[in-house]
């Protein structure tokens, strides 16, 4: 009887613990980040009346005879299933969509929590409601003023100082996007004209036009079967011919003058024999200008224009200018397009050094050799290799030969074929007509301080060096849409606000319209989260059985992502808790009944004396 009473007492005690746990769960039904607990029971020790015996001496085996001595609480486990989401609209309220924990520090020890009700203190530090500092990675500043996160660096507190100054950054690259109309310029003209004998014999004349950017002059060239090439030049003023010059008249091979070139007015070629036989060339604007703002190292704004001029079939020249007239170096080049309208490369015009006769090295705004980022002079023609391209090649070497090429008035070099007929398997020979100019690898340069004045930064910003990007420009038979798309510089700004994205990055938004990362919140993971110890305030600390805290970037390794403007609420399910409450109550009542019943049996035993 006494054993039954003690077993009942253990049942009362265990169910009382269960009721305490259920009560605590219900009390925290609205606690942010709270994780409910569950109780499991185990049988207490048993009293063995008879041990088990093996079969022997012709008798079978017998089982043990044991009497249980009650129950005990075997575990109180934390349920880490994710709680429901509550939107708050506060950008410092965060929840983890996954299994990780926020990491907090009180200056001496680290704590872990799922409750993300954070705020900024007076120093701009991101803190929990108890003042503990949220841990993460601070952004490091590069030499150009940009910031980045180095996850390998130590974690620390995160500071978000509204009003912090972001220094201006000089523009280093500019990108252009859109379409240059394929029909711009003067389209080739084809005419059937009398051969000049007046007999009505017709010959075909093809007339092509090209534009010289440096001299703002158009060149026409006539060719065809049985035609001696004719050519001439003119300028256009609002579509009308001015300053026309016929360099070579258009004649048949027999010497007869067969076609009159235009000298004024529109672009009209006239048959020398039959004046009514005319060919009018179609002209459309070949010059397009777009502009945009760029910045120097002090954050001062400059406006740079870009003028595109169609100079030949599938070739557009470009020229950058400072709208206030500052001198610009390396500010010209040309873009070629393939037959599908896609950009096929950006090139430098070739320039000949009048002193040496060799291809020139480009100069900066101070007249010094223009150097690229590697300190190498920027040449207007490729450096000769085994296959030589300029007068500086050693032609005495039998393995080296000079191919033929031509240079037009714009400085565009075209391969015309190797006169020796030699082929070199180690150096691919270009196709005849291929453009041989050097690729544009330098940068447009201008000095915001007056050239010749004090060197920056004493009296001005550093020289601005801008790499132009034309890779997103096309040439289709459509309207002009080319535009200044983007540049990477900005003026000085102040931090006005911030947002936290799902990767934990704290993105700062500045008054100059720029944004950059300020820091990144860290998330921790444990191999055995049930081994963590609750210390109140929705906080946990690690224990020897939880394992070390694995510090990870949000969104990696399945640890989860961060959702801002919301909190994770308690994962307590009231329906489950009320059910457990009933079970605990009935279990407590049943164990109470065990005690009272055993007491009545003892009372009967005592009554036997009567």
Question: Can you lay out the helices and strands and say which pair or pack?
Answer:
Blueprint: H1 2-27, E1 37-43, E2 46-50, E3 65-68, E4 71-78, E5 85-87, E6 94-97, E7 101-105, E8 110-113, E9 118-120, E10 126-128, E11 133-138, E12 140-141, E13 147-148, E14 156-157, E15 165-166, E16 173-179, E17 185-186, E18 189-194, E19 202-212, E20 217-223, E21 227-228, E22 230-237, E23 240-248, E24 250-252, E25 257-260, E26 268-271, E27 278-280, E28 283-284, E29 287-295, E30 301-312, E31 315-322, E32 328-329, E33 332-337, E34 343-347, E35 404-407, E36 413-417, E37 444-446, E38 464-474, E39 483-487, E40 493-500, E41 505-510, E42 515-521, E43 523-525, E44 533-536, E45 539-541, E46 550-552, E47 561-564, E48 566-568, H2 574-607
Overview in brief:
With 610 residues, the chain is mainly β.
Describe the structure.
This protein folds into 4 domains: 2-53 and 72-80 and 571-607, no CATH class; 85-167 and 493-568, no CATH class; 168-183 and 286-381 and 437-491, Tick-borne Encephalitis virus Glycoprotein, domain 1; 185-284. Helix 1 (2-27) packs antiparallel against helix 2. The mean pLDDT is 86. Strands 7, 8, 11, 14, 15, 40, 41, 42, 43, 44, 45 and 46 form a 12-stranded antiparallel beta sheet that branches. Strands 32-37-38-16-39 form a 5-stranded mixed beta sheet, with no helix packed on it. Strands 18-19-20-22-23 form a 5-stranded antiparallel beta sheet, with no helix packed on it. The longest helix is centred in the C-terminal third of the chain and has 34 residues, at 574-607. It contains 2 helices and 48 strands. A hairpin with a 5-residue loop joins strand 9 and strand 10 (126-128). It has 610 residues and is mostly beta strands. The radius of gyration is 43 Å and the shape is elongated. Helices cover 10% and strands 39% of the residues.
């Amino acid at each position: 009887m006494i054993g039954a009473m003690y077993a009942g007492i253990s049942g009362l005690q265990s169910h009382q613990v269960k009721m305490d746990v259920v009560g605590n769960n219900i009390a925290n039904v609205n606690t942010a980040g709270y994780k409910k607990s569950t109780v499991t029971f185990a049988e207490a020790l048993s009293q063995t009346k008879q041990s088990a015996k093996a079969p022997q001496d012709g008798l079978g085996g017998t089982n043990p005879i044991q009497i249980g001595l009650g129950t005990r609480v075997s575990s109180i486990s934390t349920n880490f299933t994710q709680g429901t989401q509550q939107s708050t609209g506060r950008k410092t309220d965060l929840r983890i969509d996954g299994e990780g924990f926020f990491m907090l520090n009180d200056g001496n020890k680290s704590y872990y929590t799922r409750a993300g009700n954070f705020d900024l203190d007076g120093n701009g530090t991101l803190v929990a409601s108890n003042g503990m500092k949220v841990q993460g990675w601070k952004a490091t500043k590069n030499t150009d003023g940009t910031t980045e996160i180095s996850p390998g660096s130590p974690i620390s507190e995160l500071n978000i100082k509204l009003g912090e100054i972001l220094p201006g950054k000089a523009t280093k690259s500019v990108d252009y996007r859109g379409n240059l109309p394929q029909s711009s310029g003067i389209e080739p003209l084809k005419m059937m004209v009398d051969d000049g004998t007046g007999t009505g014999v017709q010959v075909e004349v093809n007339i092509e036009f090209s534009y010289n950017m440096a001299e703002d002059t158009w060149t026409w060239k006539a060719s065809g079967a049985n035609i001696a090439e004719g050519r001439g030049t003119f300028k256009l003023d609002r579509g009308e011919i001015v300053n026309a010059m016929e360099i070579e008249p258009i004649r048949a091979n027999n010497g007869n003058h067969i076609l009159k070139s235009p000298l004024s007015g529109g672009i009209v070629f006239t048959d020398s024999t039959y004046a009514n036989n005319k060919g009018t060339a179609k002209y459309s604007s070949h010059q397009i200008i777009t502009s945009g703002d760029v910045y120097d190292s002090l954050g001062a704004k400059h406006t740079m224009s870009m003028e595109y001029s169609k100079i030949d079939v599938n070739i557009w020249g470009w020229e950058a200018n400072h709208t206030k007239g500052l001198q610009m170096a390396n500010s010209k080049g040309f873009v070629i397009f393939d037959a599908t309208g896609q950009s096929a490369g950006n090139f430098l015009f070739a320039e000949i050094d009048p002193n040496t006769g060799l291809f020139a090295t480009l100069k900066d705004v101070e007249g010094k050799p223009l150097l690229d980022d590697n300190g190498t002079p920027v040449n207007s023609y490729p450096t000769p290799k085994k296959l030589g391209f300029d007068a500086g090649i050693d032609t005495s070497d039998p393995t080296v030969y000079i191919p033929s090429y031509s240079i037009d008035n714009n400085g565009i070099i075209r391969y015309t074929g190797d006169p020796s007929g030699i082929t070199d398997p180690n150096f691919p020979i270009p196709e005849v007509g291929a453009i041989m100019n050097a690729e544009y690898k330098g940068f447009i340069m201008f000095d915001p301080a007056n050239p010749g004045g004090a060197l920056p930064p004493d009296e001005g910003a550093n020289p601005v060096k801008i790499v132009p990007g034309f890779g997103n420009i096309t040439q289709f038979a459509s309207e002009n849409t080319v535009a200044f798309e983007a540049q990477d510089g900005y003026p000085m700004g102040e931090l006005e606000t911030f947002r936290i994205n799902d990767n934990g990055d704290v993105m700062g938004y500045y008054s100059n319209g720029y944004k950059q990362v300020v820091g990144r919140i860290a998330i921790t993971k444990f191999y055995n989260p049930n081994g963590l110890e609750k210390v109140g305030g929705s906080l946990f600390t690690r224990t020897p059985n939880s394992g070390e805290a694995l510090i990870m970037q949000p969104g990696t390794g399945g640890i989860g992502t961060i959702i801002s403007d919301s909190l994770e609420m308690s994962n307590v399910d009231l329906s489950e808790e009320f059910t457990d409450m009933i079970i605990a109550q009935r279990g407590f009542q049943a164990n109470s009944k065990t005690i009272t019943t055993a007491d009545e049996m003892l009372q009967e035993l005592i009554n036997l004396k009567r």
